[in-house]
Amino acid sequence: MSSMGSQLVGSDTHSHPSGERWRYDALDRPVDSAMVDCHTHTYVSGDSNTTIDEFVEAFERSGLTHVFVTDHQSISAYPPLQEVLGPQVICGQEQRVAEGEVIGLFLTNKIPAGLKLADASKAIRDQGGIVYICHPLDKKRFSIGYGDLIAALENEHVDAIELYNSKSLAVDLRLSKLSSEYGIPMLGGSDAHVASAIGSSGAAMPWFDSAATFLEAASSATAFGCHCDPRKSWPLRVVPPTPPS
Q: Is residue 169 within 8 Å of 142, Cβ to Cβ?
């Protein structure tokens, strides 16, 4: 279970007292491990103001070895990031489905809009990608709920689940129990819509060089994270227009 070796600082219940920031520290990160943020955004998402240059600068300060760029409904920020960061940045996409939101990792093509989770899962896997359920059970956002998550797990439509999401106000520890029950890796993502949040949540795992080796490494990952949701600075400055994807 990927949450093993992490320690909660503060409350250990499903929800935390109002105003209390949660934090889970990974106590047993493997030596010389890959450090991965599985969920980030750029200005291409429309609700983030992070430019390509700012993303690169934040990544280089973060201590991460790898980062997935997972903009909403688009993969167009990946090419310019890949030109600078090479294999350290990996293509992903966050897509709304009927039941909530899902992320495809290791993508080469966009996930089509208007799908149910089962169909989105197939579309991701058909291109060799990994199905990553982002911020599940978070009632403050359009997220996959408990019943739909159980159904997806039962039908083997899920490859990994986001245990720690830096924008979530609480951590639902039921996810750890599901990880044990279904043998699904639990990872972390900052969901950074501001550059300074990149790397605030993620996972430490053995090194990988493909979707297959990533999934294998994720099975022994140690997730870490903290609540980190800085306010966006815009509209104080103009953000470049979203390029077509």
A: no
Query: pTM of the prediction?
Result: 0.90
Q: Are 100 and 115 in contact (CB under 8 A)?
A: no
pLDDT band at 18 (very low <50, low <70, confident <90, very high): very low
In the chain, where the domains are located: 27-226
57 class by beta-carbon count within 10 Å (0-12 exposed, 13-18 middle, 19+ buried): middle
27-226: CATH architecture: Alpha-Beta Barrel (3.20)
The model's pLDDT over 185-199, given as tens digits with 9 standing for 90+, comes to 999 999 999 999 999
Question: Which pLDDT does position 240 carry in this prediction?
Answer: 56
Neighbours of 185 (CB within 10 A): 26
The answer to whether the beta carbons of residues 91 and 103 sit under 8 Å apart is no
